[in-house]
Amino acid sequence: MAHSQQNDSVNRKRTLEEVSVGAERSKGVSRMGGAVGGTELGQGELFRAACCNLGESFVANPSVDVNYNDAAVGARQIKLLGLSGQYVQMLTENLSMGSGPATPYLLGYVPGSWMKSIQVSKGTASVKQGYQSITGQIDVEYIKPRDEQGFNINLYGDSRLKSEGNLMGNLHLNDRLSTIILAHYEQDFAHHDDDGDLWHDWPAIRQLNISNRWMYVHGHYIMHAGINFLDESREGGQLVDGLAVPFRALVDNRRAEAYMKHAFLLDQEHNTNIAFLANVSHHRLDGGFGNTDHPEDTGYKVCYYTNGFDALTSQLMLEHDFDDIHSLSTGLTLSADRMDEYLSSFTAHRSPQDITPGLYAQYTFSPTYHFTAMAGLRADHSSLFGAFITPRLHLKWMVNDWVTFRASSGEGYRTTYPLAEHHYLLTSGRTLDIALDPIQEQAWNTGISGAFTIPTGTRNVLVNAEFYHTTFLHQAVVDYDSDPTAVTIADLNGNSFSSTFQIDASSDIVEELNVLAAFRYNLVRCSYGGVLMEKPLQSRYKGLLTLSWKPMMGLWQVDLTLQLNGPGRVPHYIDADGTLVTDEEFPAYLQLNLQLTREFRHLSLYIGGENLTNYRQPNPIVNAADPWSATFDPTLIWGPVHGIMAYAGLRLKL
Questions:
Q1: Which residues sit opposite 166 in a β-bridge?
Q2: Among 232, 335, 325, CA closest to 3
Q3: Phi and psi at residue 162, in whole multiples of 5°?
Q4: CA distance 446 to 409
């Protein structure tokens, strides 16, 4: 066990899989033991809420927020360390989850019932996974073909008339080869306008998602491979009934991807192994915004946007432990992106290609059980941006069994396609001034954290305190403030930084009751038009209280989550009456979620409610009555767009 904590993700994951056989705690939240600190959310934690997809998996997480970007197409993003989710490296089992036009919707592409666990780390991650991680890394682990053979059904429905079905079945063909089929379907059967502005409060979504995964194990050789297909449509905008020419927001996404992993264990005593990983994907987006019903009527604007994005990532890696003190991981990587993009209003069509080969080396030094240092360096060469170096350092000092400190510092890069990743801005009436060429973002992240176990009688209180600071050298800045009639996305001209402090404490007060309390403060600033300002649509602080009660030997479970979201700044805009608004702030607000679960031998039944405080952002759409005007804007979203929502579901395992 001590040896596995000295290594990075490969050994750590193997140890966790062994522990999970007999440890109930692994099904909830556990601390990751390597030099790169973080938490692992097991299915027990994920099932504390409806968890329809990855975006709804962080309801009870003190570190990660999930927000809507707009009220038209329902683009969502996570926020970590006070910054948007595109600075978090999103992975599925150490492979890139996606980028480009898929970015605003990725959180909805991983069904909750498919996930076995989620690993969340903050700050710069290991160089093995690439140069992209700036504020953190989220790695999703799917249910495995070699897991216990069976057939699972998950059904869900809510008061918004959204229905969802999931089917999962794995088959062990023999003692070496196994496969699993994962299928997901969801559909919104109604349109909602609770605030009476004649707009969908959120888009109606229909999604079909199918995956087939294989695993082969023979001797010292392991193979993973799989394919995935997704078809999704989003219908938002004005309600069609009663309007001769409604403003519509229609987006269709089609995605296909395939992956493979090959691993050879060459020397078990020294953990010497060689592996090759690769995945390829194609994403096609077709969007129509404005007068899509009667485009021949030129009195009303309409904008069409299409994007075809192809991506390839591959990695050849070698790992070796020289002894219990020294270990090395090294490898070669290759990534390639190609995009065909068309926007009718700009009459632009372009096909940028970015091919980036790279190499890395990561050295881990563990002279004692109590101390680990991990230093990594990678060099990459982009066909668009040239050569760049990515250094990273992680330190872990385990003072004793009750106190552990970690520190990290490193650089991160990210290639962003501004229009592809922010195409939801096409619904706004503002003039768009968006850089058409890719931008390479560059930032430094430094963090320090401490984990403390405090004995209190027969129970322990686990306390975690941390501070992270991110400074950007280059950044694609979304600027609402320089011109209230326009939205500009361009490279940073000035300063941009984020500082985040968080403290949280958890404890099993009694055997059946677990409590978590957390508080986080964000200080986020960026230059807009040469003026350093607070980043808009960002809460300055967040408070979280969660209770999980499992009476009657766990046959029943009650989960309560209370969030206090702090106030923040609203960017400059022009109101419907022509008034320039420059100093508006949104207030702090509370949200309460509650779920009741009953466990049977092969069946779980759950009912719950979200946003039981019924708080909704008032007038989320600026000038909703006139979507054809320059003052119309559905993208200034800072709070919930729907009120109380009740749901129910079942999980059946055969």
A1: 154, 184
A2: 325
A3: -95, 130
A4: 4
Interatomic CA distance for residues 473 and 451, integer angstroms = 31
C-alpha angle 40-42-44 in degrees, rounded to nearest 5 = 140
Token match 């001034």: residue? Answer: 433
| Cα–Cα separations (whole angstroms), residue 201 to 185, 193, 233, 395 | 22, 5, 16, 46
Look up residue 615 and give its two tokens. 């708080």
In sequence order, which residues have a C-beta less than 8 Å from that of residue 493 and are 6 or more positions away? 477, 527, 530
Q: To which H or E segment does residue 379 belong? A: strand 371-382
Contact between 93 and 304 (Cβ < 8 Å): no
One DSSP character per residue, 16-79 reads HHHHTTT-GGGGSEEE--SSS-EEEEEHHHHTTS---BGGGS-TT-SSEEEEES-SSS--EEEE
12-26, 75-89, 152-166: least confident range: 12-26
Amino acid at 81: L
Buried/exposed code over 407-424 (b: 16+ C-beta within 10 A; e: otherwise): bbbbbbbbbbbbbbbbbb
Residue type, 116: K
Residue 59 to residue 607: CA distance in whole angstroms: 16
Task: Give the tokens for residue 239.
Answer: 């309600």
Q: In 3D, which of 51, 182, 40 has the Cα closest to residue 112? A: 51
8 Å CB contact between 15 and 3: no
Residue with tokens 């918004």: 160
Q: Taking all residues of the chain, what is their mean pLDDT, rounded to a whole number?
A: 90
- The SS3 of residue 425 is helix
Do 566 and 541 touch, CB atoms closer than 8 A?
Answer: yes
- CB burial string 259-277: b at 16+ within 10 A, e below: bbbbbeeeeeeebebebeb
DSSP annotation string for 169-223: EEEE-SSSEEEEEEEEEEEE-S---TTSSSB-SS-EEEEEEEEEEEEEEETTEEE
Judged by DSSP in three states, 97 sits in coil
pTM of the model: 0.91
Write phi, then psi, for 218 (nearest 5 degrees).
-150, 115
Per the listing, tokens 């009751």 go with 513
Instruction: Let me know: does 398 contact 130? Beta carbons within 8 Å.
Output: no
pLDDT digits (tens, 9 = 90+) for 394-422: 999 999 989 999 999 999 999 999 999 99
Closest Cα to residue 136, out of 147, 118, 124? 124
Kind and range of the H or E run holding 232: strand 221-237
What does the pLDDT look like over 610-651, one tens digit per residue?
999 999 999 899 999 899 999 999 999 999 988 899 999 999
Which pairs count as long-range contacts for 544-548, CB under 8 Å and 24+ apart, including other chains? 544/60, 544/62, 544/504, 544/516, 544/517, 544/518, 544/519, 545/515, 545/516, 545/517, 545/518, 546/48, 546/60, 546/515, 546/516, 547/513, 547/514, 547/515, 548/48, 548/513, 548/514, 548/515
